[in-house]
Design a protein that fits this description.
Layout: E1 2-5, E2 31-35, H1 49-60, E3 64-68, H2 75-78, E4 83-86, E5 89-95, E6 98-101, E7 105-109, E8 112-117, H3 148-160, E9 167-170, H4 175-182, H5 190-201, E10 206-209, E11 216-219, E12 222-224, E13 229-231, E14 253-258, E15 261-271, E16 283-288, E17 297-301, E18 305-308
Parallel strand pairs: 1-2, 2-3, 3-6, 8-9, 9-10, 10-12
Antiparallel strand pairs: 1-13, 4-5, 5-6, 7-8, 11-12, 14-15, 14-18, 15-16, 16-17
The chain binds fe (ii) ion.
Length: about 300
């Protein structure tokens, strides 16, 4: 099985891979793809303690970790790892089971073709926000935007595959979809414009991107992922409930199923790790809209929520 998740930013957001009901089920047969901002290769001088510790941790997991790069990577050091041919494409081998999926490559995993193109523009550091020499080459690198050569490589490989793959993994979105997600906060750039062309030309089943730090289906076959870990091919909303990461927030109006009846209510409390005796998925305390009921609220599992309601 192939799983997909969003940015881990080195050790900052790797916690989503720790105790939860999804990674617990994963075996030696499985793959986990991170959609950029892997961030463990970060220190511009050498592999530091943090990098060694977490790469060892990932190497010891049952699954194989695969990642596209994002904008928060120390590219000069990342590109020093040995390049290998792997499942039809090129990877940097950080560890035998921790592989960087290089830009513009097409991989065949479990019979599915996956096109990968990392890279994105930083919006929190670098020249765009007026950072100086103190930052450039130490915490920000110009290689975050794919080079002409890497973009060409992507076009060439898609051409070879007759512009048809099963899945696309990128860090940022094509311009049109980035604009839907971020409005004019994130401006189009060379990477998003390139992906726009790829989107126009390529047939695919589903596209996953990181970068925006949301879990969101932008349209039915394009999702932005961050905290969740889902099976490739799934949408965010259609994916398995995940312990520790509630899909709904306090104040959300929801349609739920309770004792065989459908009812509307508002999320009053979330219990991300379940309740004391039930902890296989997040739980919610829901205040019911129907005020004639004996009990004004109910406690339910996430899988009992049918959908987020637009009624407030
Ligand atoms: Fe990120």
């Amino acid at each position: 099985m192939i799983y997909v998740t969003g940015d881990i930013h080195g050790s900052i957001d790797i916690r989503k891979l720790l105790d939860n009901n999804i990674t617990e089920q994963m075996t030696e047969e499985d793959y986990l793809i991170i959609c950029g901002d892997f961030g463990l290769v970060w220190n511009y001088k050498k592999a530091d303690k943090n990098e060694k510790k977490w790469l060892k941790w990932l190497e010891e997991r049952p699954w194989t970790t695969l990642f596209a790069d994002g904008n928060h990577e120390c590219f000069p050091r990342l590109y020093q790892f040995p390049v290998k041919e792997w499942n039809g494409g090129k990877v940097h081998e950080l560890r035998p089971k921790v592989l960087h999926l290089m830009r513009g490559e097409v991989f065949t995993i479990e019979g599915k073709k996956i096109f990968v193109m990392g890279g994105a523009a930083s919006h929190d550091r670098g020249p765009a926000v007026g950072d100086t020499k103190q930052v450039i080459g130490k915490f920000w690198w110009p290689e975050e935007i794919p080079s002409e050569e890497e973009m060409e490589n992507g076009l060439k490989n898609l051409e070879k595959n007759n512009w048809e793959v099963d899945y696309i993994i990128t860090h940022c979105l094509p311009t049109t979809f980035q604009t839907i997600v971020k409005k004019d906060k994130f401006k189009p750039d060379a990477a998003t414009d390139y992906l726009e062309k790829i989107h126009e030309r390529t047939k695919f089943t589903h596209w996953y991107s990181g970068h925006y730090h949301y879990d969101l289906d932008v349209v039915k076959n394009i999702s932005v992922i961050f905290t969740r870990i889902i099976r490739i091919g799934e949408t965010i909303i259609g994916s398995e409930t995940m312990l520790g990461v509630p899909k709904y927030r306090k104040g959300d109006a929801v349609l739920i199923e309770y004792e065989g009846e459908e009812m509307l209510g508002t999320v009053k409390e979330t219990y991300p790790w379940g309740t004391l005796f039930k902890h296989e998925e997040p739980y919610y305390k829901i205040t019911l809209f129907d005020t004639d009921r004996k009990k004004p609220y109910v406690t339910i599992m996430e899988s009992q929520v049918i959908e987020k309601s637009l009624i407030k």
